[in-house]
Amino acid sequence: MSLDLYDVHKSYPMNVGRKHVLRGVTGSFRKGERVGILGRNGTGKSTLVRILGGVEAPTRGTIRRTMSVSWPIGMAAGFQPALSGADNSRFIARIYGKKASETVDFVESFAELGDYLNMPVGTYSSGMRSRLGLAISLAVEFDCFLVDEALAVGDTKFGRAFAARLQRSGLILVTHQPSLVRQLCTRAAVLDQGTLTFYEDIDEALATYNSL
């Protein structure tokens, strides 16, 4: 089971010509592995994560999914800002055939939002929205969790629970922070000038990224 990309391109029309963001990306993410994708700001990380999560289609190329992949956690997309975190949890539970009460109980325990769980998501900070998104996706139990940029996982109750949960599932982490890749991942890739290069050795990936 895997998520496979074959010669994936992405470009956007401009006033003159097109802006090319991804140029022939090919690679595989296997079930159960934890891969960090490193890229500087403006290199197309958010575009790549939207394509991996199925939020956006490539301009050209093929994506094959034989494992379940979460929505891009860390992006604001997908939540109804006027609804509370609890109501958003219930809505997503219904979509994925989960018991709403069990989902809300899990999110309440995991996300550490306190009274904010019953407040509109539009009042949340970006970190709170990320914790809500991660908690809901963990309740759904995807094969692979897709995390855009970063959760400040650190040595907190939330961070320790997140790291423990990842021992039982896969992760694709798209970030510009090498420390998160070293902490959470077993393999890495570097996105630069529209191409994605995979490295089995994380030290080699970090050295390449730091040299850009």
UniProtKB/TrEMBL annotation:
Signal peptide: none annotated. GO terms for molecular function: ATP binding. InterPro entries: AAA+_ATPase (IPR003593), ABC_transporter-like_ATP-bd (IPR003439), ABC_transporter-like_CS (IPR017871), ABC_transpr_TagH-like (IPR015860), Bact_Polysacc_Export_ATP-bd (IPR050683), P-loop_NTPase (IPR027417). The keyword Transport applies. SMART domains: AAA (SM00382). The keyword Transport applies. Keywords: ATP-binding, Nucleotide-binding, Transport. Residues 3-212 form the ABC transporter domain. Belongs to the ABC transporter superfamily. This is Capsule polysaccharide export ATP-binding protein CtrD. It comes from Roseomonas fluvialis. The gene is ctrD.
